């Protein structure tokens, strides 16, 4: 329930702080006194968009704050999901800055306007002429039927499964689209893959092939130079090995004459050993070199293939070609397995449809079982509100589509006159009739689901006398289950309130201000008398006012 409302620098309100209680609260005041301003300020707390025209003093910020007792609202999960501190007595603050920017806070934590609006829907239901039009919408009418049928838990489970089902449908559609594209590309991808698989793709292969190609392509030069090297090593007259061998023999005769000579001998011996090893390697290479035109052609073919593939795939090296080959292999495999995936997903969807169908059937049967009760209750209550011939035709039509509300389309037809033609509410019901129907429905909903605080904004417009008394009784009865506000011009309604507030204007030297105050019993008598007889208080008006209060 709304326990406190504080408004500063908003429209005609300079500063206002008022406390509210549970039960039935009525708000009265002359036309233009500022009741709409009060509602506007409250709407800002509940998430309505604001603009600079809201500021009374343009260079000061506007602050509107509401304190709500929410311990019975079951909103803990909402606070957890939005990372907000939960308090049984929650404070919502809205600030409108002179720059035009707006800020919102829940228990001093900044929130977006979307979060605030969602929370506001769970705190106060402001019933206006605009909201009365909701009555003509199919979803609202189904909500009424489902409240009586106690379908809330069934619908929650159904919608959870429906969300999964729609996700699966989207996945199946994506698979089909992928398959359609993949089939067109399959032959091309397979050709490209086979071409890459024929190539000797491994890291460093191009460098190795280029080296082998250079050796095979220059075999005569290599043989010539190796032969020349062999001659330089082994020629009896000028060969390196015979000369170094002769040098070693000469130095061997000096080793006993000192360490220097011995060291020199050992160094020449080491050189001779290394030269002998080089000579052996030279001869080995010479024996292995031979002209091989066929091998040269093969190596050249592999190189040209790799060069062509690098250019074709715009790759910088063989590693990129390997990545491309693996990606193509995945595509070819995936295309081949798409049929199986589509079959499995189709079967999964069919199983989901079976479950959803059973859920929707249970929801439908529950709805059908309460429709006669709903029809009887609406017609009975409207009879008390001066609509004795009001009649409804409420029916369900099966659909083949899974809707958010099940698999039903609701037909909610109405006539206000005996023997009249039934039609949709928005076409055949007047504004006053819609207001009375909505009041009856809200009273009915209050018994079956936990509604937030309700504020009726002149729902009694267009009615008077005994009908207004009965409307007031309905609102009074509703207030036993929840906090109810009624902004009214009718003394019959105002007299039934547990609490009575008056909106009024005061004019200062420079500006007019809107105020709100709770009336004492004596002040209520005077206010009701004014509502009954105008500005001039007569004894009869005062007596009638006292009678209404009693």
Automatic annotation (TrEMBL):
SUPFAM superfamilies: P-loop containing nucleoside triphosphate hydrolases
Keywords from the UniProt entry: ATP-binding, DNA damage, DNA repair, Nucleotide-binding
Domain (RecF/RecN/SMC N-terminal): residue spans on this chain: 2-508
InterPro entries: DNA_recomb/repair_RecN (IPR004604), P-loop_NTPase (IPR027417), RecF/RecN/SMC_N (IPR003395)
Signal peptide: none
Keyword Kinase: no
Gene3D superfamilies xrefs: P-loop containing nucleotide triphosphate hydrolases
Keyword DNA repair among UniProt keywords: yes
Protein family per UniProt: Belongs to the RecN family.
Task of the protein: May be involved in recombinational repair of damaged DNA.
Protein name stated in the entry: DNA repair protein RecN
Organism: Maribacter dokdonensis
